[in-house]
Design brief:
About 40% of the residues lie in helices and about 15% in strands. The chain has helices spanning about 10-15, 60-70, 90-105, 130-150, 165-175, 205-220, 235-245, 255-260, 260-269; strands at about 25-30, 40-45, 50, 75-80, 110-115, 155-160, 180-185, 200, 225-230, 250. The strands form 2 sheets. It has a 7-stranded parallel β-sheet. Strand 6, helix 5 (about 165-175) and strand 7 (about 180-185) form a beta-alpha-beta unit. The radius of gyration is 17 Å and the shape is globular.
């Protein structure tokens, strides 16, 4: 399960019971926030898509940690972390480190979400200099926390709306700072849905997210861990992600449209 469905860690054991191999909860921020004004979530049934402009609505990292402490299942759980909407980008690393400190002991991996289109200016952190300024201190803190809690991998989640040059710049930064993995991708803003602004997920995202995956795999090489997310609505889509270079695959909108049967189809069909 991709990040975004269980923002606060309320349903870890329930999702585990459905058969997922791993789940990612969040995105969580240092302080709770309400997110963007409603309505902010729309279905486009004709194209099997969802448009959202949620804006990192969550109960704050302390609440999520309380849920991690209470979980009973042994399923691997990643935590997606972000910045509060009113934190300027030049201080974004402080929010990510704050969340990292809180979740590190209880997470199996941590994902840095810098690709949601629904927090103003967040995607600017994908630019080379801004990304380096974020990743360097976060990586340093990861290594410090490792001494106390053991190693927890760091992943970066990126947008499907980057061009090839931007994707290569991101990948180069990941390699330079020994980031452990990449998540391809978040939602796309390239749509004309009647709801207006927001990120589109579901079937129409399959093409652009998979192309981002292919470009990243070509640049990163065969050994770098990549999680694919975006547009997986069937077992066939899952296999396409694997063929394009994914090591692991996440679903979200496919789960909304197809239900828990999609999990069984992918694992056992």
């Amino acid at each position: 399960m991709a990040a975004g469905l269980d923002k606060n860690g309320d349903f870890i054991d329930s999702l585990a019971a459905m058969g997922f191999g791993f789940i990612e909860i969040g995105t969580v921020t240092p302080q709770s926030q309400k997110g963007n004004t409603k309505p902010r979530l729309f279905r486009d049934k004709s194209s099997k898509a969802i448009v959202n402009r949620m804006g990192f609505n969550n109960k704050g990292v302390e609440y999520l940690v309380s849920k991690l402490k209470k979980r009973r299942s042994a399923i691997p759980v990643g935590v997606s972390i972000g910045k509060n909407f009113d934190t300027p980008n030049n201080k974004a690393h402080e929010d990510y480190i704050f969340c990292l400190d809180k979740v590190f002991e209880f997470a199996d991996y941590i994902a840095l979400n810098i690709s949601s289109p629904n927090t103003k200016g967040l995607r600017d952190l994908q630019a080379k200099k801004e990304l380096e300024d974020l990743i360097k201190p976060v990586k340093e803190r990861q290594l410090e926390l490792t001494k106390e809690y053991g190693y927890r991998p760091l992943f970066l989640k990126i947008s499907p709306d980057n061009n090839e040059e931007s994707i290569e710049d991101i990948c180069e930064t990941l390699l330079s700072y020994s980031i452990d993995g990449l998540i391809c991708t978040n939602t796309t803003v390239n749509h004309n849905h009647i709801s207006g602004l927001g990120g589109l997920s579901g079937k129409p995202l399959m093409g652009p997210s998979t192309e981002t995956l292919r470009i990243a795999r070509k640049f990163l090489g065969d050994e770098f861990l990549i999680i694919a997310s975006g547009g997986v609505m069937s077992k066939e889509d899952y296999l396409k992600k694997i063929d394009a270079g994914a090591d692991l695959v996440q679903i979200y909108t496919g789960f909304i449209y197809e239900g828990p049967k999609l999990i069984d189809d992918i694992l056992n069909k």
